Amino acid sequence: MRKKGKWTLGRKAVTGIFLIAVVLTVLFVTVSYQMYAKVMDEQYRTLSMHVAETAAEVVDAGQVERYRDEIWEIYSRNPKPEFGNKEEEAAYFAQYEQVKDEGYEAMYKTLDKIKETNEVSSLYIVYMDPETMTCVYLIDADNSESGCPAGTWDIIYEQNYEAMKTPEKGFPAYITDTEEYGWLSTAGAAVLDENGQAVAHVMTDVSMNEVMEERHDYLLHLCLLFSIVTILVMFLCIKAVNRGVVRPINQLSEAAEAYVKDKKKQGNKITNLQKLDIHTGDEVEKLFNSIKQMEQEISSYIEELTAATAERERIGAELDVAKHIQASMLPGIFPAFPERGEFDIYASMTPAKEVGGDFYDFFFVDEDHLALVMADVSGKGIPAAMFMVIAKTLLKNAVRAGDAPARALEKVNRQLCEKNDAEMFVTVWLGVLELSSGKMLCANAGHEYPVIRRKEGIFELLKDRHGLVLAAMEEARYREYEVLLNPGDSIFVYTDGVTEAADSGNNLFGTERMLQALNEQPELSCRKLLEHLKEGIDRFAGEAPQFDDITMMVLKMAERNSMEFYPEPESIGPAEEFVEQFLLKAQISAKAVRKLNIAVDEIYSNLAYYSGAQRAVIMCSVKDGVITLIFRDNGKPYNPLEQAQPDVEAALEERTIGGLGIFIVKKTMDRVTYHRQDEWNVLTLQLQTGKEEKN
Fold it and tell me: In angstroms, what CA-CA distances link 90 with 82, 87, 149, 381?
């Protein structure tokens, strides 16, 4: 029994087919009409532009320039005139009759012939003055009352403002719809002198009123045609769906509704579902046979499925929690420190199917010291994930408390040994980098060897002295060693998931393949380098499953990219030259360099004249397609971003003094930020490379 108000399958099928038909009809009609309109518009644009360019080539530029000068001289005596009566109007236009010599009349006839030949509405030559934004007619091929005689003036329309910046290129065709003229396609071509300078512009108007009426007729016929086709197709589809799908499914549905009742009454006896006989020769029959088979086996499956589902849900919930803990504990936002240009850093962890205990970390101890951590907890599953959380927290607290690497490892080792009933341990490589000098103090607690690359060299293993893993022996001691990272040098650290990645034959990726992959393109950015290495691991492993996390981190010292100076007006030039040379060396486009030079001039001028600073530093960097300039000064606290925005639309005499430079900087840069740090003002400018070419 069907419940009242419920939608049957047949009803849904009919509704669905109807909606699909309507949508397709609307889509086809819309696309067809738009394509037709686009083609017609393009034809008229091309025609208007072609006629204008033809006329501009035919007329004598020297003559046009002479007529322009004479007409403009007369017009300049009484610019933008207004007439109180016809006598004043006639007197005004009578002034221009002296200009119309034989050459003028010959040019008029030429334009008129071109106009009539091409069947355009209007063809005329105008002079557009960029200073007054006034358009003055020189010659109009239309001598009727609707024509514009020499001396007629008009304002330059807003859509032509941009083209006025490059008048030699003319005015690309555009379509307008006005109450006075209707639909018009208008274009303009420059009349060029011997030097390629525009002396005037030939303008043409092509009426599109008829084609617009044709569009409406086309749309009407198109809608009618598609409607007829749609109705016919919809009727055939509904009939086929009802016969081949709806009717058999209704039978199957009725039998399925009785399934539960049959089972309760008959137990495992044959039900009405088994008695049903459906032969459609298609997917519906296949579905029916599958349901019959399922019904025979479903009782025995229920108990097993219930137990298995409960176990999977429990395990899945635990794994989800563990993976969430792992992911949330690791730094995952890059670039990690966009305001710091001394280095580039990137890290990644690709978790295995089973939850492991790999982790990495990097954080500032103070303004000049950056800590790096790479670690691997023994074992898998929830215990390893929780042990990872504890170890990571203890290490970070120890380093931030001021402990040197060896001392930090010893302290954390003693803490992890307490109540370590599970007898877990963790391997750790720890380094603290002094950014100002490049000196890094390191200590290794049973972890993989780090990899070092000197500028323009190759990646090589640094076989440092290992200490005992953490949480193995309470009184273990660790030794420090020093690594000097010069500008351009890199350090790469990792877990054994990299070298022990296996292929289907259980062959390991190994250290040699890792070094080979790193040295294939050693000049890549940190992010690209790790992505390249991961691609190499994936190619090697193929479809073989991985049972350990693949965790990697690389840091590269930036080239010398800073300049310290005393902020005074005399050093503005050297500061600009420093930035420009850095950007040119980095192969940044000239357009972007100009934008950044303007920004440097504005920011540095503020520092020199108003900051009261005794020291200032400019730092430059280009990373992942982003140009970053950082200005640091020890002057009085001042946030230029809080300065009120000037009213750029107000008249010059009405504008307040100041604020325009910062306004320009904010408009030309993609990102501008400010913060106060350790008695220093820090202003950061960022510009996306390549974007400046589109603006």
Answer: 12, 5, 11, 98
Give me the count of residues in the chain. Answer: 695
Query: Which residues share a beta bridge with 427?
Result: 376
Q: Are 150 and 130 in contact (CB under 8 A)?
A: no
Surface-to-core class of residue 71, CB atoms within 10 Å of its CB (0-12 exposed, 13-18 middle, 19+ buried): buried
The pLDDT value recorded for residue 304 is 64
Beta carbons of 124 and 103 less than 8 angstroms apart:
no
Confidence (pLDDT) at 453: 97
In a 13 Å sphere around the CA of 183, the CA atoms on its Cβ side amount to 12
Q: What is the pLDDT of residue 284?
A: 66
Buried b (16+ CB within 10 A) or exposed e, 360-388: bbbeebeeebbbbbbbbbbbbeebbbbbb
Q: What is the pLDDT of residue 271?
A: 61
Contact 80, 239 (CB under 8 A): no
- End-to-end distance of the chain based on CA atoms, in angstroms? 67
d(CA 18, CA 62): 68
Rg, Å, the chain Cα set: 40
**DSSP H or E segment with residue 539:** helix 526-541
Question: Which parts of the chain have pLDDT scores under 50?
Answer: 1-2, 268, 652, 655-657, 692-695
**556 DSSP β-pair partners:** 344, 490
CA separation for the pair 336, 553 (Å, rounded): 13
Q: At what angle do helices 381-400 and 405-417 cross, to 10 degrees?
A: 140
pLDDT number for residue 657:
46
Q: In the block, which residue shows the tokens 């030794």?
A: 479
User: In the prediction, which pLDDT does 371 show?
Assistant: 97
664: nearest Cα among 580, 618, 605, 612? 605
Sequence letter at residue 647: D
CB-side neighbour CA atoms (13 Å) of 321: 11
Exposed, middle or buried: residue 289 (CB in 10 Å: 0-12, 13-18, 19+)?
exposed
DSSP 557-604: EPPS-EEEE---GGGHHHHHHHHHHHHHHTT--HHHHHHHHHHHHHHH
Separation of alpha carbons 623 and 337, rounded Å: 11
Residues 190, 193, 198, 201, CA torsion sign: negative
Q: How far apart are CA 376 and CA 496, in angstroms?
A: 8
Strands annotated E in 106-214: 122-129, 134-140, 153-155, 171-178, 182-192, 198-207
* Rounded distance between C-alpha atoms, residue 298 and residue 291, angstroms: 10
Q: 362 and 372 in contact (C-beta within 8 Å)? A: yes
Please give the structure tokens belonging to residue 363: 């954080």
User: Within a 13 Å sphere around the CA of 219, how many CA atoms are in the beta-carbon half?
Assistant: 14
d(C-alpha 592, C-alpha 596), whole Å = 6
Domains belonging to the chain, first-starting first, are 35-212 (3.30.450.20), 337-557 (3.60.40.10), 562-693 (3.30.565.10)
pLDDT one-digit tens code per residue, 326-362: 677 789 898 888 777 789 999 999 888 667 789 999 9
SS3 content of the chain, % helix, strand, coil (to 5): 50, 20, 30
Q: Across the chain, how many H-helices and E-strands are there?
A: 18, 21
Q: What is the residue type of 629?
A: L
DSSP 5-20: TPPPHHHHHHHHHHHH
Residue 210, pLDDT score? 76
Cβ–Cβ < 8 Å for 616, 660: no
59 within 8 A of 202, measured Cβ to Cβ:
yes
User: Which residues, including other chains, have CB under 8 Å from residue 372's CB and lie 6 or more apart?
Assistant: 361, 362, 429, 430, 431, 432, 433, 491, 493, 553, 555
| Per-residue model confidence (pLDDT) at position 254 | 65
